[in-house]
Amino acid sequence: MSDQTVTIDYANSLIYELQKAFWDERGKGARFRTTKVGNQYFEEKVRPLLQSTEIEDIIEKIGGVLQGEGIAANVSYSREERLLKIGVKGCIHRPVEERMVAKGIEPFTCVPANLIVLAIEEKLDVPVELAEIKVEEGTCQLLLVVFEKRPSLD
Amino acid sequence: MEEYTLTDATMKVIQDRRSIRDFTEEPISDKDLDMILEAARQAPSGENAQPWRFIIVKDEAMRKKMGAIAGGGSGRRFTAEFVTKKMQERFATLQDEAKRQAAFQKLTSGQVSTFMANAPINLVVCGKKDVWDTPYDTSAAIENILLMVTALGLGACWVIAPCIDIRDEERIKALLDIPEGYKAVSILSIGHPTRAHKPRPRLPINELVFTEKWGDPYYKKEQE
Question: What is the pLDDT of residue B95?
Fold first, then answer.
């Protein structure tokens, strides 16, 4: 495998164009087809570190991974009952979201959010839904809904 | 029995179609099911690829599982819409507060999609991925199905809830052993309606059709 790397500007440019193409094809439905983007990264980098079934511990662990890998400078969170409010500061993919907003498109996918959703769903076996990505000054504010239980298939 | 010209009969079937979510326990006859599937088979497809495949699910336990997946998906999405206040904006013109709350409850709980567990048949529409136009091709087949269902005096609802989010689609595919080369597109719940349903409102046609270029209405006045 080549050890050649590409610039983050190049990577973000491609991610933006892929997202925009997906939006153009699928509109608001695009968000539901990208809920597992980041899954391979989750399996390789995040899952092995997950021990606790406490949501706060899970988010702190993911925040640590993202910081350690230089993907985000800081991940903060607060919880109000079933609502989980996550702040992602200094994310290297922020320019993608900014370009979406500049085009008048509400950002619909976020890898840190997906990692958190995948982790909570796996460790707690409850559904989680990313409700909103707000691109604010310096920070992306994510709103997640954590449900009490998964509908039984038995 | 009333007699119609072919044109009138076609339009009547189109206009009589409803999204039916309440079904009696009466099963669908094999003869009716044959007609429904033949209508699907006759749909147009890009390059005549005919990428559709269908799974007829009658087993009650399986239908309940599919209903649970559909309800879970709907509940998640509508709850997200509710907590961000977008649902309240969408229903802003509904003045009756009790009806508003009932609608919010039905949507956020996922009940809006769990009904499929009670349909005598859930017809799963799958689309081959390795063709150009699967979403369009399968949608044409689905509309043919819905029209034939109506013509037969049956009812159906086109349910996308268990397939729209990739997480739910993976559950449906695993449940039904759908291979990787196929996409679970939608599920059609089919049965005998418990009652007649009124038509849902439609946008006036003069808002929908332009002449030559976008913007200049083809119909200058609202058509009845």
Answer: 87
ipTM above 0.90, yes or no: yes
Distance, C-alpha A18 to centroid of its chain: 16
Q: Do B69 and A152 count as a contact with CB atoms less than 8 A apart? A: no
Question: Which H or E run includes B65?
Answer: helix B60-83
Q: Using an 8 Å Cβ cutoff, are B173 and B185 in contact?
A: no
A36 near B CB under 8 A: yes
Longest alpha-carbon distance in chain B: 54
**Mutate which of A145, A150, A152, A154 to disrupt the B interface (most B C-beta within 10 Å)?**
A145
- Cβ neighbours around A73 below 10 Å, total: 15
- Cβ atoms < 10 Å from Cβ of B120: 19
Q: Name beta bridge partners: B157.
A: B189
pLDDT in tens, B129-168: 999 999 999 999 999 999 999 999 999 999 999 999 999 9
Biggest CA–CA distance in chain A, Å, is 49
pLDDT of residue B223: 54
Strand order across the A128-136 sheet = A74-80, A83-89, A139-146, A128-136
- Answer whether B72 sits within 8 Å of A151, measured CB to CB: yes
The 3-state DSSP composition of chain B as helix, strand, coil percent (nearest 5) reads 50, 15, 35
Digit-coded pLDDT (tens) for A14-43: 999 999 999 999 999 999 999 999 999 999
Q: Is the pLDDT of residue B222 over 70?
A: no
